[in-house]
Amino acid sequence: MDLRGKVALVTGASRGIGRATALLLGERGADVVVHYKTSEEAARGVAATIAASGRRAVAVRADLERPEEIDALFARVRETFGALDIFVANAAATAFRPFAALRPHHLARTYQANVFAFVQAAQAAMALMAGRRGRIVTVSSFPTARYLPDYALLASAKAAVETLTRYLAVEAAPLGVTVNGVSPGVVATESIGAYARGDDAAFVEAATAATPMGRLGQPEDIARVIAFLCSDDAAWIVGQTIVADGGLTLTGPYARPPADRP
Ligand SMILES: NC(=O)c1ccc[n+]([C@@H]2O[C@H](COP(=O)([O-])OP(=O)(O)OC[C@H]3O[C@@H](n4cnc5c(N)ncnc54)[C@H](OP(=O)(O)O)[C@@H]3O)[C@@H](O)[C@H]2O)c1
Predict the structure, then answer these.
(1) 119-145: per-residue pLDDT in tens?
(2) What distance in angstroms lies between residue 197's CA and the mean position of ligand 1's atoms?
(3) Distance separating alpha carbons of residues 199 and 192, to the nearest angstrom
(4) With contact defined as beta carbons under 8 Å apart, do 60 and 38 qualify?
């Protein structure tokens, strides 16, 4: 778990799971590129916290909907650190719509920000990992396989990234780079508001009731899995998307044994 001397890039590190991941990788010794799109102050705060512990950290802006900004992000990584050891593809963006309301521009933007951007970024990351034991970690989501209202588009993009994770993993393994993913259940972040469709309390109650562990995930629950996948201990894991969801995707109508069972 010692990441001293490693350089990590975490997308969407201004808040939520990405923020917790950037902080944990920094705590474990990595220098960190804290990527953000709009939350500049928050991203600078994350970078400052990491830098305060003696690591190098920079906040870098890029809109993943713009390929030229993705190029500029990796050019900045090269200029600042010269190479890359860890790339965490965490940022996500979509339009939450029922299937019938999906329009071509919703598909184009969501696939650009989540799928095209991942391919472009992973290619750039691989180039910066040449000759190093690199780690790429993708962040998926439980609705790839379970229905969540208005989530069809992002779920399908995440499913594509899970498949790309497996394909890249096979091609990257001989080069010494492992590629894996993590698939969280419901995690207590600001984006819960988007899933909750106007009633956060009802959503939190339903998600908690559906999770055998009896609580929502915290960003740190997911960050620890990502940090593990970035460590030497995970060197033999190739192309897997690890489910870290407190049991959410195992359950049907009952998340716990009914009360009348011993
Ligand atoms: N929260 C959950 O319950 C949950 C569950 C399963 C999976 N996940 C996945 O976990 C990851 C993190 O989720 P989260 O809830 O912590 O945060 P989130 O709200 O899904 O993502 C926020 C991050 O993505 C960045 N971002 C958004 N649009 C962008 C764009 N066009 N270009 C570049 N960056 C962009 C944001 O940057 P700015 O703030 O700077 O704009 C922010 O840092 C996502 O992939 C999400 O799908 C979350």
Answers:
(1) 999 999 999 999 999 999 999 999 999
(2) 17
(3) 10
(4) no
Q: Is there an atom of ligand 1 within 6 Å of 17 CB?
A: yes
Name the pTM for this structure: 0.98
Query: Mean pLDDT over all residues of the chain?
Result: 96
Q: Let me know: does 177 contact 134? Beta carbons within 8 Å.
A: yes
Confidence label for 195 from pLDDT (cuts 50, 70 and 90): confident
Q: Which residues are identified as catalytic?
A: 151, 158
| Distance of alpha carbon 82 from the chain centroid | 23
* Ligand 1 centroid – CA 15 distance (Å): 8
Sign of the Cα torsion 193, 160, 183, 63 reads: negative
Question: Which residues lie below 8 Å from residue 9, measured CB to CB, with a gap of 6+?
Answer: 32, 33, 35, 73, 77, 84, 86, 87, 88, 125
Cβ of 10 closer than 6 Å to ligand 1, yes or no, is no
Domains delineated in the chain: 7-244 (3.40.50.720)
Which positions ≥6 away from 194 have C-beta within 8 Å? 96
Confidence at residue 183, expressed as pLDDT on a 0 to 100 scale: 98
